[in-house]
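Before relying on records like the one below, remember that each one covers exactly one chain. Contacts with other chains, cofactors or solvent are not represented anywhere in the record.
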Amino acid sequence: MADPKQGGVVKKGHEEGLKLAVSLLEEFGLPMGLLPLADVIEVGFVRSTGYMWIQQMKKVEHNFKIISKLVSYDTDINGFVGPKNIKKLKGVKAKELMLWPPVSEIVVDDPATGKIHFKSFAGITKTFPVEAFAAGQ
């Protein structure tokens, strides 16, 4: 099987990696605060396939205050980025009661309604206001 990272742009280190991650969110119309990363080791993106990967030193848990939602970001995160969506996402979980179901897809409404949808492999979809994921939230 071919390496999904082949032909990708790779940025190493926290500052450069974060710049690439933020620029991809911006380019594809996703909220700037969607990936609250810390101690980034590497971020990569393969434009021909949309494959993106992020490596960070430790798992990050972030509380999105506006929606009171705790989200866990693993040391390895990857998925396929496209216009207003991330598909086949791995490494992100959102706390639901006592469970941490993995988030498999993120979609921003197009045309814009101000809503963003998080889907899990279990078929659960949660919808929130996009502004809950603005930078600095």
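The mean pLDDT is 92.
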